[in-house]
TrEMBL record:
Species the sequence originates in: Massilia forsythiae
Domain of life: Bacteria
PANTHER family: BETA-GALACTOSIDASE, HYDROLASE
GO biological process: carbohydrate metabolic process
The keyword Transit peptide appears for this protein: no
Protein name, per record: Glycoside hydrolase family 2
Ranges of biased composition (kind: Basic residues): 659-668
GO molecular-function term, one example from the UniProt record: hydrolase activity, hydrolyzing O-glycosyl compounds
Domain Glycoside hydrolase family 2 catalytic: from-to ranges: 263-417
Family indicated by similarity: Belongs to the glycosyl hydrolase 2 family.
A Pfam family matched in the record: Glyco_hydro_2_C
C-alpha cells in the first residue's frame, strides 16, 4: 500500500490493495508496480505458513533478515511490534521466535522514506520528480532480499577475519549467541584440499577471538600461491562449528578468508607489501528495469566485464552494493573502494544518521578481502560548507578517524575529489578532456605539488585546513566521462537524451579519445592509480564504456589494451584476458565452473538467464530476477541473497562440502 501522506501508523488500519515483487522497489519495472511518484511511506504485508522443518523447537530460534529497507523500517510480526531500524543501506535481523503462535507467520513492514529529506544518506537518489543530471530514480522501501532461517539457540551471529601477512597469521573474531556451559568451538581452515588449521577451544563468553599461525612457505614465489590479489584471487575456506559440552553439534557456518594486506608506503599504495597500480572504473550499480537491485548472475557478469575491460579495481559509487557482488569480487579478483552513500545537507541529523549507518556497513563488509580502501565522504556531499564551517571539517575528520578505529587494516579517504582536510590518499576528480592538460597537472611531482596548491579542477580547492597532501599516494579518482551519442538534431533538447563531460559521435571516436586520455594518465608517474568514469550508461549519464544493457561501445580488446597501458606487456604477459595468472588458473580446482569466468562481447550473449529480449523489449535486463527467488543452479543463490534452508552452491570448491541440515553460510 502506497501511503502518500504517511497517515497510517499501524498495519491493522492499512488497506493492502496491490502486489509487489520483492526485493525490487516500487519505482522499478521489475517490481510489477513501476510507480515513480513521491511516496513518503510504503506498507508491506506477507503471510505464509511455515513448513514443519522450519518450526523452531525449544532450543532453536527463527530469524528474519532484511538486506536493506529505505530509510526507516518498523516491523510487526503476527500483529506485534518487533523492531525499528534506521538506515536505508544496512541490514538488520530479528529473532521472531517469541512472536510465533503456531505455523502461521505474518510480517508487516512500514518503510518511511521522505523523498525530500536531504539530511539522510541517499547516494544518487534524486529529490526531483524526474531524474536529472547525475541523479537517478529513487529506490524506496524494501530493496534487498528478505529471508528467514532457523538456527540453534546457540549460534554464530557474526564473523570477522583479519589477516596479518607479516607474521603469516589469520585472526578470527566471532560473536556467539547464548553460549552454553562448557561449549566448544571447532575451527578448520583449508587451502584447496590442504588442511591448514583444525582448532578446538573453550567458549568462555559471547565473543571468540583466536589467532591461527599458518605454515609460512618462506620465499615470495611460494608465498604467492597462498595470497589473494586480482591476478590470483586465492581464498582460504573456513568452517566454524559450535558444540555443547557433550560434543553435540549446535551450529555450523561456512565462510572464507584470504591472506591479503593493503596499505601505504610513502607515496605508493601497496598490496601484499609490494607497490600496486590501481586501474579502477567508477560503477554506479544501476540496472534499467530493476534500479539498484540485481540478480547474482548480473552482479557476477559486471565483475567479469570490469576485468575484461582491463581494470583491476572498481569504485562502487555512492552505493553500498549487495554482499553477493563483493563475494564475486573476492572469488574472481577485483579490488574495491567501499563507499558510503552521502547525505546532501549538513545537520545534527546528518551526523547521527551517517555515522550509525556507516558503522553498520563497515562491520558488514570488513571481512571481504576485495575491499582495499574506504570512502566515507565524496565531493563534500553532506558537508557543503567545508571551506567555511569548522564543524563540517570536524565531521569529515571524525568519519575518517572512526573508520580507521573500526578497521585499522585499510587506508581511508578523507573527502574524495577535493577539499580534503585529511586522508591516507590524495584522490582528485579532474574531468579535463585535453590529455595534455592532465599530463601538465600530474606528470611530475613538481607539477603535482603546484596542482594541489593552486589548481582548482572543478573550481574547488583540492586540499584545505592545513592538509598538504604531500607524501601520500595520489589517485586520479574520477576523470574521463566521454559520452557516445549521435549528434543532437536541431531543436532537440540535449539533456533529454543524456550527456557526458565530452561527446564522441560513435564507437570509433570514443575509442580514439579513450586511448589518448589513458596514454596521458599512464605517463603521469606520480599517480598510484586512476578511476575512469564510468562503467555503464546510467540514465542521463551516457558516459559509460558499456551501454545500460552492458554492451561494449567499442571493441573490448582495444579498450582493455588502453586501460592496461603501454607497460602492461612487461608485467602482464602471463595473464589471461581477465587478468588472471596462469598458475592460479591451473590450480583453481575442478569445482570452479568455467562459466564463472566467461563473458561475452555482444548483445546476443550478454543477456542473463531467463532475461532474453523479446521482439518488443530490446533490453536484456527486463524483469531481472522477477521471481524474487534464486534458481537452483544459481551459484550465488545461498548466503545473503538466497535461501539458507537449501543446500546450494555458494562458492568455489569446498564451500558446500560439509553441508548439514543446520549449516548456514556466511559469505564473509
Amino acid at each position: 500500500m502506497l501511503d502518500d501522506q504517511a497517515v497510517h501508523v499501524d498495519p491493522a488500519e492499512v488497506a493492502f490493495d496491490r502486489s509487489i515483487v520483492v526485493p525490487f522497489p516500487p519505482e522499478a519495472r521489475a517490481s510489477g508496480v513501476h510507480d515513480m511518484a513521491f511516496r513518503r511511506r510504503i506498507w508491506y504485508r506477507r503471510r505464509l505458513r511455515l513448513d514443519p522443518g522450519m518450526m523452531p523447537g525449544p532450543e532453536e530460534r527463527l530469524m528474519l533478515h532484511f538486506g536493506a529497507v529505505n530509510h526507516r523500517a518498523r516491523v510487526w510480526v503476527n500483529g506485534r511490534f518487533a523492531v525499528e531500524h534506521r538506515g536505508g543501506h544496512s541490514p538488520f535481523a530479528i529473532d521472531v521466535t517469541r512472536h510465533l503462535d503456531g505455523p502461521e507467520l505474518e510480517v508487516a513492514v512500514q518503510a518511511d522514506d521522505d523523498p525530500l529529506d536531504m539530511h539522510k544518506a541517499r547516494g544518487k537518489m534524486d529529490w526531483e520528480a524526474e531524474p536529472h543530471k547525475i541523479w537517478y530514480p529513487r529506490t524506496s522501501g524494501i530493496w534487498r532480499t528478505v529471508w528467514i532461517e532457523k538456527v540453534a539457540r546457540t549460534h554464530v551471529t557474526q564473523l570477522r577475519w583479519t589477516a596479518d601477512v607479516a607474521v603469516w597469521q589469520v585472526r578470527l573474531d566471532a560473536d556467539v549467541a547464548h553460549v552454553p556451559e562448557g561449549g566448544m568451538a571447532n575451527v578448520t581452515l583449508r587451502l584447496g584440499e590442504r588442511l591448514l588449521v583444525a582448532d578446538r577451544c573453550l567458549l568462555t563468553g559471547p565473543r571468540l577471538s583466536r589467532i591461527f599461525q599458518l605454515p609460512d612457505p618462506g620465499i615470495d614465489d611460494a608465498r604467492a600461491l597462498w595470497m589473494w590479489s586480482p591476478e590470483s584471487p586465492q581464498l582460504i575456506e573456513a568452517e566454524v562449528e559450535l558444540r555443547d559440552a557433550a560434543g553435540n553439534l549446535l551450529d555450523a557456518v561456512q565462510s572464507y578468508t584470504a591472506l591479503r594486506t593493503v596499505g601505504v608506503e610513502g607515496e605508493r599504495f601497496v598490496l601484499n607489501s609490494r607497490p600496486y597500480y590501481l586501474r579502477m572504473v567508477l560503477d554506479q550499480g544501476y540496472w534499467p528495469d530493476s534500479l539498484m537491485v540485481a540478480s547474482s548472475e548480473q552482479l557476477r557478469h559486471d565483475v567479469l566485464l570490469i576485468k575484461r575491460l582491463g581494470f583491476n579495481g572498481v569504485r562502487k559509487h555512492q552505493k553500498s552494493e549487495d554482499p553477493r557482488w563483493l563475494y564475486w569480487c573476492d572469488v574472481l579478483g577485483l579490488c574495491v573502494w567501499g563507499e558510503m552513500p552521502s547525505a546532501y545537507g549538513f545537520s545534527n541529523a546528518t551526523v547521527h544518521g551517517v555515522m550509525e549507518e556507516w558503522k553498520e556497513l563497515v562491520e558488514r563488509d570488513v571481512s571481504h578481502p576485495c575491499i582495499v580502501a574506504w570512502v566515507p565522504t565524496n565531493e563534500s556531499w553532506g558537508v557543503p560548507e567545508l571551506m567555511n564551517d569548522p564543524r563540517q571539517v570536524d565531521f569529515v575528520r571524525a568519519l575518517y578517524h572512526m573508520t580507521r578505529a573500526l578497521d585499522g587494516t585499510r587506508p581511508v579517504v578523507g573527502n574524495d575529489g577535493w577539499e580534503m582536510p585529511c586522508g591516507d590518499f590524495v584522490s582528485v576528480h579532474d574531468y579535463a578532456q585535453d590529455p595534455a592538460v592532465l599530463a601538465e597537472r600530474y606528470g611530475t611531482r613538481e607539477r603535482v605539488a603546484y596542482t594541489l596548491e593552486h589548481v582548482q579542477p572543478d573550481r574547488r580547492r583540492l586540499v584545505i585546513d592545513g592538509f598538504s597532501g604531500q607524501g601520500r599516494p595520489l589517485f586520479l579518482s574520477e576523470f574521463g566521462g566521454i559520452a557516445c551519442m549521435t549528434p543532437v538534431a536541431a531543436g532537440q533538447e540535449a539533456d533529454r537524451r543524456g550527456w557526458g563531460y565530452s561527446v564522441a559521435r560513435d564507437g570509433r571516436e570514443l575509442l580514439a579519445r579513450y586511448q589518448e586520455l589513458m596514454a596521458a594518465v599512464h605517463a603521469c608517474r606520480p599517480l598510484s592509480g586512476f578511476c575512469y568514469t564510468q562503467l555503464a550508461d546510467t540514465f542521463l549519464e551516457k558516459n559509460g564504456l558499456l551501454t545500460e544493457h552492458r554492451v561494449p561501445k567499442a571493441p573490448i580488446d582495444a579498450l582493455a589494451a588502453a586501460t592496461r597501458g603501454p607497460d602492461a606487456r612487461l608485467h602482464d604477459w602471463h595473464l589471461d584476458p581477465l587478468g588472471h595468472d596462469e598458475r592460479w588458473r591451473t590450480r583453481r580446482g575442478p569445482d570452479f565452473p568455467d562459466a564463472w569466468s566467461r563473458v561475452g562481447e555482444t548483445a546476443e550473449v550478454l543477456p542473463y538467464r531467463s532475461e532474453r529480449p523479446t521482439a518488443t523489449e530490446p533490453g536484456p535486463d527486463q524483469g531481472a530476477g522477477a521471481t524474487g527467488a534464486p534458481e537452483d543452479d544459481d551459484p550465488g543463490a545461498g548466503g545473503p541473497g538466497g535461501h539458507p534452508a537449501r543446500a546450494t552452491r555458494t562458492g568455489p570448491a569446498g564451500f558446500e562440502r560439509r553441508a548439514r541440515p543446520r549449516t548456514r553460510k556466511h559469505v564473509a
